[in-house]
Amino acid sequence: MSSPSQPSSYSPTPITRVGIVAKRGLRAASDHLDRLAGWLREHHIEAVFETETAALAGAGNGAASRSREELPAHADLVVVMGGDGTLLSMATRIAQAGRNIPILGVNFGSLGFLTEVRIDELYTALGSVMDGTATIDERSMLAADAYRQREHFDSRIVLNDVVFTKAALSRIIELSISVSTGLMTKVKADGLIIASATGSTAYNLAAGGPIIHPRVDALAITPIAPHTLTNRPVVIPGSEVIEIRPHLGTVDDEIYVTYDGQTGYPLQKGDVVKVRTSEWRLRLVKAAARSYFDVLREKLKWGER
After folding, report:
1. Domain with CATH 3.40.50.10330 in the chain
2. Global pTM?
3. What tens digit of pLDDT does each residue of 136-152 get?
4. Annotated active-site residue in 31, 34, 76, 84
């Protein structure tokens, strides 16, 4: 597995179609969506709206629409308006569609870790993508495969994290963690997070895990409220395969696995989930005015009293 590449200028095939996705119910984006469709028409580029986003924009613009699942196959660039959650859902869909197209995240309200382009920077950022001068961050993603009775039953590609948690009224859960060299440890905790470098600033950070620069080829394994205080977060090489085995002793034990905090399911006794770095990378359009550490300082309020 190669290391994540350095940010680079984007050398695209000509962009003829731009997919547009807004956070569900984000009425503040309505006027901007119509304006964006008009800007694209002026530049002889087709706007393709996600179905619910088309309704949010209004039916008068005459633009094509596709479902979230279909959209990546019909776009050369995806613009996301809203928060990081909306971008995460599209990052997964782009990878699942086998596309290598960039995604431009536009934040509304507070700055996002991923949706870092402000609305007043949108057209400058779009122009830089069109003329090939945009800076693109290639972010590592996670691939997760689940097995039941040794039969493969589920595959996911996610950007941030794979999380194992207990049910609301469950006791502390127990998990065995193995890596390529064998058993790493057994953890008794409220849960466990396996995070990519990008995901290190998401749930992993809230649980006391380390911040990993997105160009570092590494994975973070972070217990959530561990029963034993010596169970600490561990950073391992991105080339490792992490194998998680839940221990379910009674019918009352419940362990859930969730993917990027958006989808998931309960695990059964004997299930195994294997997590590794995916061969797919998210191509994220960077805000020209801000570095990674600029975003960290603003989001984490570093240096403020």
Report:
1. 8-134+286-300
2. 0.90
3. 999 999 999 999 999 99
4. 84
